Amino acid sequence: MDADRPEPHDETRMTEQPALTFSTGLIWLIVGGLLTAIAVGVLIPEAVTGLPPRWLPWAAAIADVVIYALMFVARFTVPVTHLRRRLGLLAIGMLAIAAISLASVLIVAFAAVTPVK
């Protein structure tokens, strides 16, 4: 390659995806909001019905909302000069919301079907 030409980007590599390199972050907030709404929509009925452990769905729902709020803060406070850091933080927030919600739902589901002696 010529010294004047930049390296070609391989968009099939995870670190070169446009959502992690060039996005403004708005799509992460939209999808994160939808994920949070769906998660809270599943967790709150679990909490209201009193499935054991009773505190877990509430804690997971609160954690999801707090993480989404932190995503919002990261989107508007991390400067454009650190775009990859901003997008990385938004991606980590999405993964955290998904992981917390899934773990909580699975724990409550297994606890609900496990007989207590």
- What is the CA-CA span between the terminal residues? 70 Å
Rg measurement, Å: 19 Å
What structural class do the secondary elements suggest?
Answer: mainly alpha
What percentage of the residues does DSSP assign to strands (E)? Answer: under 5%
What percentage of residues falls in helices of 4 or more residues?
A: over 70%
Number of strands: 0
Number of helices: 4
What oligomerization state is this entry in? Answer: single chain
> Which shape, going by the Cα principal axes?
elongated
What is the average per-residue confidence, as pLDDT, rounded to a whole number? 89
Q: In this structure, how is the largest beta sheet organized?
A: none
Low-confidence stretches: none
The helix/strand series, from N terminus to C terminus, equals HHHH
List keywords for this structure.
single chain; 117 residues; mainly alpha; elongated
Description:
The chain crosses the membrane at residues 20-44, 56-77, 89-113. Keywords: Membrane, Transmembrane, Transmembrane helix. The chain is mostly helical. The chain is 70% helix and 0% strand. It has a domain at 35-111. It has helices at residues 18-21, 26-49, 55-77, 83-113. The longest helix has 31 residues, at 83-113. The model has no long low-confidence stretch (mean pLDDT 89).
Q: Could you write a compact summary of the structure shown?
A:
By secondary structure, the chain is mostly helical.
What's the helix and strand layout?
Elements: H1 18-21, H2 26-49, H3 55-77, H4 83-113
Helix pairs in contact: 2-3, 2-4, 3-4
